[in-house]
Amino acid sequence: MSALRAARSGGPAPSTSPLPPPFSRRALLAGTGLALAAALAGCGSSAAEDRAAPLRIGAIPDQDPEVLQRLHGTLAGSLAAGLDLEVEYRPVTDYAAAVSLFRTGDLDLVWFGGLTGVQARLQTPGAVPIAQRDIDEDFHSVFVVNTATGLAPSDDLGPLAGLRFTYGSETSTSGRLMPAWFLREAGIDPQGFPGGPGFSGSHDATLALVASGTYEAGVLNEQVWSARSEAGDVDPAVVAYTRTPAYHDYHWLLGPRAVERLGEDLPRRLTDWFTGLSPEDDAEVLELFGAQSFIPTEAANYAQIEQIGRDLGLIR
Predict the structure, then answer these.
(1) Of 152, 168, 226, 242, which residue is the least packed, with the fewest Cβ within 10 Å?
(2) How confident is the model at residue 121 (pLDDT cuts 50, 70, 90)?
């Protein structure tokens, strides 16, 4: 795509949050013996419950809830059988909730986009990337337009500047961060659309809003665009305009509390399980994820996204 320049890589090292202050023994002993016993009993119960808790998986809500339920419900069942663990899928309401619940330990393993994965990792010392799909090391976004605009596919992003335009979620990598970066690299203010840009909340919602004419153009991730197109679910009023250059995107991120609870070998076991999925034996899971395989990944793969997030004010 000649009109688009590759985004620069690199970025500052992830920051860490300070540890909480140590538990105050003096404050505890100031209470009555009854209060002390109740506190100790409560702590013991909480620790036992935490040890017995299943591996709690989640995902950013980038598609319709029923699609996500099928996708991650199927994965949870397969993962539970493969690792002999109890696995529970917990849906979340928005991208920020996924990051927050991961930080607090309410979610152990989360399917994040590139930006939310960086945000969650920076806020959760000890979090480690586990795996990404084969398509995530060479991911793209697709700009789409309503046919009423009269625009034909082109590498020139200029005509989009005068259209009513919607992104997906405000912290979506493929639905906001990287498209905004490529727009800016092409000399277009990513916030300068008539009336300001919209934020649909998900890739499916972006398609619906452009189809209805509420917005004349929008952007979504290529995997969703391809899947909906192949299934015949894209309204004929919506056509692809252009495709961005490649970047790293989605990945599984594992929290430190899960490792404490389920063993230090958990990261390796999870990476081995994901990368061991094959089209012959695990076709349903891979097909739902739109991939041929999962591959190992590491934090350094998202340095570009961290830098762009800081440049655009989405990471501070």
Answers:
(1) 152
(2) very high
Domains, the chain, in order of start with CATH, read 46-137+249-311 (3.40.190.10), 140-243 (3.40.190.10)
Res. 36: pLDDT tops 80: no
3-class SS of residue 307: helix
Instruction: Kindly list the distances between the CA atom of residue 94 and the CA atoms of 15, 91, 129, 249, in Å, as whole numbers in the listed order.
Output: 24, 9, 21, 18
* Cβ(248)–Cβ(191) below 8 Å: no
Q: Which residue has the tokens 């990598």?
A: 173
- Mean pLDDT for all residues in the chain: 86
Amino acid at site 48? A
Q: What pLDDT is attached to residue 71?
A: 95
DSSP of 58-119: EE---S-HHHHHHHHHHHHHHHHHHHT--EEE---SSHHHHHHHHHHTS-SEEEE-HHHHHH
Burial grade of 33 (CB within 10 A; 0-12, 13-18, 19 or more):
exposed
43 to 38, 52, 107, 145, 256: CA distances (angstroms): 9, 14, 20, 56, 20
pTM: 0.79
CB 177 within 8 A of CB 209: no
Which of the 8 DSSP states describes residue 247? Answer: B
Asked if the model's pLDDT at residue 262 lies above 80, the reply is yes
SS3 assignment for 137-154: HHECEEEEEEHHHCCCCC
Q: What percentage of the chain has pLDDT greater than the value 70?
A: 84
Report which of 134, 62, 165 is spatially closest to residue 278, judged by C-alpha positions.
134
pLDDT tens sequence across 130-187: 999 999 999 999 999 999 999 999 999 999 999 999 999 999 999 999 999 999 999 9
